[in-house]
Amino acid sequence: MSLLVMKFGGTSVADLARIRNAAGKVLREVEAGHRVIVVVSAMAGRTNELVGWVNEVSALSDAREYDAVVSSGENVTAGLMALTLQEMQVEARSWQGWQVPLETTSAHGAARILAIPRERIDARFAAGMQVAVIAGFQGISPEGRITTLGRGGSDTSAVAFAAAFGAERCDIYTDVDGVYTTDPRITGKARKLDRISYEEMLELASLGAKVLQTRSVELAMRYRVRLQVLSSFGDAPGTLVCDEEDIMESRIISGIAHSRDEAKVTLLSVEDRPGIAAAIFGPLGEAGVNVDMIVQNISEEGRTDMTFSCPVDQVTRAEKALRAAAAEGGLAFANVVTDTDVAKISVVGIGMRSHAGVAARMFRALADEGINIKVITTSEIKISVLVDRKYMELAVQTLHDAFELDKAG
Ligand code: ASP
Ligand code: MG
Known about the structure:
This protein is 33% helix and 26% strand. It has helices at 16-31, 46-57, 63-70, 72-87, 119-126, 154-164, 198-206, 214-223, 276-286, 315-327, 358-368, 392-402; strands spanning 3-8, 35-40, 92-95, 103-104, 113-115, 131-135, 138-140, 146-148, 169-174, 195-197, 227-231, 239-242, 255-271, 294-296, 303-311, 335-348, 375-379, 382-388. The longest helix has 16 residues, at 16-31. The chain has an 8-stranded mixed beta sheet, sandwiched between helices. Strands 14-15-13-16-18-17 form a 6-stranded antiparallel beta sheet. Strands 4-5 form a two-stranded antiparallel ribbon. It has 12 helices and 18 strands. The protein has 409 residues and is of the alpha/beta class. The radius of gyration is 23 Å and the shape is globular. The chain binds aspartic acid (ASP) and magnesium ion (MG). The site of magnesium ion has 3 residues, from loops. Residues 9-10, 41-42, 47, 73, 136-137, 151-155 line the site of aspartic acid (ASP).
């Protein structure tokens, strides 16, 4: 009997009517002869509310208790979903993370999945259960405490269950009907993609296209789980995230991602010697600064400038860490210059591997609009630039046109 994983995000289970709507979709799959593992998020807004309560009680909260509180939203939805399915004459049972058990590390608030033993759920399927409803986002540590997988972690729960149970597909139901060539709020020409490769989705997810938690895509890629992103508010097929070989469309660029809240930091006149990069990025790493792009200038008379980008809300922390390192004597520079009004635009596509000229086309299009590029980085399937934040929308629209993403490939 084939097995399907169906994951419903917060907006798809926001109230009882929506839970009923989601349950109706599960019923249809059961009637089509599938066994189903349903993974649910907390009702929309609930996790934020729980996090807010924890912070109000205790600003530097004990991470174990944070997880105890914050994981509870999913428990409610799982139980309600099981009850709703039972009302539809479906043999359904809910499972909290520890009951499965979904075993994780003890990194509370950002735990990683270690294993999902199948025995208990398989035994219940064998005894007639049709649907297992799993509370997403949560697991149990080796110490026996409840853990959570980080915000958006139910996606990762769903993919992990799909991998563990060899599911035919993992359907991620959300409030958008798929993955788009770019944010449809920025250009009306954005087009829904039928398929996208894991590699491209990974780039888009980590670049701020918020449809899927990045880790869930990594996991899907590693275990070759076919993922479908689709809306729970209609019946249209969504976007399939799959192997590159399964994509027929030939296109060079698949999507354009943007990230609004970036900052650029430049260290002026640092010594150009072995170990200097380590002396800069070591302290930044220890301070928890997520450095993204890095550019080192050519040096003159043994000194150079080093520029990097990071999220804008980490700039103060970054500056502090650098000044502290300088005070301790491990690092010397003339000054730190920050630019907190930048955004990052990235074009992503596996076709870049085999096609030359993508960078030139991108830079030409931006130049024609008078948009100045401040930093450039590239990888095998991605080119990213930093531009002034006020040009972000224009840059996305311009590139969407330049690569003709409104036309099917
Ligand atoms: N409810 C959790 C969150 O909002 C997990 C999830 O929905 O994926 O982060
Ligand atoms: Mg989500």
